[in-house]
Fold each of these.
Amino acid sequence: MKEENSCKASIKNCLEQRYFSIARLYKEEKTMDIHIHDCYEIYYSISGGKQILIHNKLYDISPGDLFVINQYESHHVSKVDRAHERIVISIHPEFLKSISSDKTDLSYCFTNRSENFNHKISLNKEQQQHFLYFINKIIATNGYGSDIIEYASFLELITLLNGIYIANNNLHIDDHSYKYNQQVQEIITYINENITELITIDYLANHFYLSPSYICRIFKSATGTTINKYISARRITIAKSLLANGTNVNEVCEKCGFNDYTNFLKTFKNAVGISPKKYSTFSIS
């Protein structure tokens, strides 16, 4: 398999081939703004970084940390050090579903979102070696039988990661690895609990007894993205989920907090690449 050097190229390849794709990223690639996409993502940090915001949780990133992100979870890497090597695996949900069995759901680490689950898996040294072994095997294989070796290696890799994910989330760890400034935590919680309502920066500032400039500054400092971008990404996440379940486009517009239909169409198309109606058609089919 060709190793991509761009996250966008890897996602594009994954969606077009309805398969999986691997990208190895270095310091010279600028991290993407807060975003969502129609494939599962495994984010593995080699050198460590600063923090990653997933949905409404902000995690510190250390070498050997791995994150599992589904197609409805907005995410953004913030405060990245210049030297930040990582591996990103993009996986088409239908491909993962097709290789699962009645006894083994290989999508489990992406679909299990119980109350106290954790996106983050901190791999130990042995697990890191296993992970990199399978990645290098997939990338290096060529010649006769390379497609079989690639497929089999990925199958082993995703089975291994699901096993680690299940074991980690059954530990019921009290000291959660996600954290953020207490004020920002309250702001994020409020936004998610009121995402269908009209939320403005002025309204948030008044609600939390802060100035508009101060609330914007602390939010950007903690998460690496702006309040408006976060709200927009969360609403698009909800819209995608509703459309995938067959909800009418007009109803989706209302349920995800867009008070203007034209604005909803424009924002959705800019974020996803196609109109809500087309997305609904493709998802249902």
Amino acid sequence: MPNLRELLKDILPDGAKKKLVASYDIIGHIAIIKIPDELILHQKAIAEALMSQHKRVKTVVRKLPVQGTFRTRQAELVAGEPNLETTYRENGYNIKLDIEKVFFSPRMGTERMRVASQIKNNENVLVMFAGTGVYAIAIAKEAKKKGFRSNIVGIELNPDAVKYFEENIKLNKIDKLKENGIEVAAIEGDVKEVAKDYAGFADRIAMPLPMSADDFLGCAFACARDGCVVHYYKFAKKEELEAFKALLAKTAAEHDAKTEMLFEKNIKSYARDVNEYAIDFRISKKQRL
């Protein structure tokens, strides 16, 4: 996908090109671009160049900061149709969403597939902060492909996201997989409250809330079975990872458990010197006599 500087090299003056943020996201028919205040006068030209390059793009919006408990963002229409509901195709499944009502990152598709590919037969999977259901659906699709049985539960606080989660279960025919031994449930509620109903449930847990997943580590340990694998995400500077590992060890001790680090990778930049890390670890619970 060409970056914006390449698309606009013959359109914008040199001074404006230097201020341009080259990357952008496309979700279904919507392109999301970051336009600095200094380039507002050029935003229409930027949007039109992008739409001419990507024929499926019918709407271009300016990227604004994520805000609030639900991590949503307002979308400022720059050009095209004022339709913010779209369907995004990823790895063989479709995700319907409204970009203003729910949080969704198209940049995590490879990571979601990495997690889904690790599913094992007869696993109970708990997806915290499940959003529109993308992790749950990816895992269900992978289980079907491998002929595995799986019980997948997604917990989400945002009622709009839960509505789309339930729509996406039907859109991808996941509700038809019960005869294959695959079930996906979308649960609306606060993870700290709903998790109480899933104590000792999970063989695998996904925690895609990099801003504040630390606050829910105790829930993960409470929900985990012995041997549970946790897929954890965190915004951090590299030097802060040791502090996280110390917190992980402390939380494990409080739950009479141990952890084993399985995977750690810087998956994308978030801010200056701050990256998003994917961290997998296994929880081993001590056997009570």
Amino acid sequence: MAFIAIDLDGTLLNHQNEISEENIKAIKYAQEKGIEVVISTGRAHFDVQTICEKAGISTFVIGTNGSTIHSKDGKKVSSITIAKERVEEIVKWLDDRNYYYEVFTDKAIYTIKKGREQFQNEINHLKSLDLDEDMKELVDVAERQFDQFGYVLVENYHDILNQEEEFFNILTCSFDKKKLEEAWNQFKEINELMVVSSADHNIEMTNKNASKGLALEKLAFLMNGSLEQAMAIGDSNNDVSMLQKVRYSVAMGNANDDIKAICTMTTLSNDKNGVAHAIYKYMDNLAVSK
């Protein structure tokens, strides 16, 4: 059994936060040929499920950067949590320093109402300025983040910690590079955490045993499959672990040069159906190798 693992934001989703018809057709074509397609993302499963239902596709989902695995019918296959004590330590540090942050659980994406308003005001201010293209794109990415399904706004971090839910992922954002670097340095030294980034304005934290690569490896094992002929497609730092696990690693045309450098090929951008292009090329190569 062969696998295709596909990142969502900046990869399968275009700039309208939609899966194009071309990409939908390519996914269904691969599935018809017996390939197991897996969406692998930093988003929560309940959010991905909404996107997939709208697109009319059904896949396995690796969610919250490898913390969860769900089957096609939405059943949770595996989950790896962050201990509540560690969550409290992280969010208190972020809160004390006025960072915007989100906490992902099995039921919701929690964020502080005041922090959300402040971050939106910062986005609005930046949009009013004469920014270069890279910064414009970064601001757009930050704003599209709020299109996710499942947000719950709360008054303070104690409201988050009082939830009797499993904690999977903590995301923090800042357009201040020094501030973001300070957070990165603070949390990367904690042995229990895996710290990655999906865009230049954020860092994301999961349990150290949770990553897209480890989750893909686990899924292949559970299904008695192999990653020997697998392909993974991504565009950012949090995709590296799965790109390194497969034989065919594909960088999106819109990925940065560091990601392109570690991949076996580069496809078209997310606005030019890069996923579909990569899938058809992969299927052709697979047919030849057989």
Amino acid sequence: MTPEAKFLYQEATRCNLENPWFTPREIARALDALSRMLAQSKMERWLEKYPGLGERKVFRKNVAVIMAGNIPLVGFHDLLCVIMSGHRFTGKVSSQDTILPAAVAKLLVKLEPALAERLFLTDRLPEDADAVIATGSDNTARYFSYHYGDKPHIIRKNRNACAIISGNESKAELAALGTDVFSYYGMGCRSVSQLLVPESYDLSRLAEEWKPFRYVTDNVKYLHNIRYQKATYLAGNTPCTDEGFFLLRRSEQIASPPGVLHYMFYDDHGKVRGHLENNRDMIQCVLAQPDSSLPFSQIIPFGRSQYPEIDDYADGVDVVAFLTSEL
């Protein structure tokens, strides 16, 4: 193990004390996803889309990035975009994820000392930014829009993923879909929170194929959340199915709480297309078997939602283009 890997490992082991959702399994998942994203060949193809970026004059604008804390290192892609665009990165870390961003920043500066003048982390909202990239809930998005409305900005709200089941999936495909549902305990913006299933679909197939994910109930916060949501549904006479390690609830709402998976039935693809189109602003990505008739340009295969490519920009907004054209 290299000294850098050893340092990152040591820092990662402390994260669960700060945030019980950040278990070793989920931290390893996040680091694995980033390592795949940062493969040299992928980086080179990505940068080719922005001719002259490597040679462009460094403008050194101060770009404030307000990072979420729902999954480990969720703000890293924005950090990468800011640095590669030649600007100064000021990251407001989430109280739920302070250790890993600091560790990664330290490693980056060690690898490239010049970044010490361009990479800063803070626990306060930056006030002197030239541009702002902020990720949060619908409520915080309203505040960010008001607070930074006079500056060039990208403001992100709540989003989730939807999965469309045809009924023809193999066991392997359904098992892969479980990764999209249970990774990060369902708290990522690319986590599947709603299923669209055919009218006659046997939902019990899901729990059967997802048994390997029962480990999620080892997390006390996740287990308590299931119990709380079930009690709330019972008190409100809201039907739900308790599968032991997740709840199934019929609902047309995209977002669902951790431990709860929404589903809705469809009888034709017109209903699917209409639902996706009407909720486009709440959907980060769509998972399904290949189907060109769906109103999304990119359909992700089951099992791949938590492994975005380097040019899979959140909300479909090209951050590098924003940083090189708006500033």
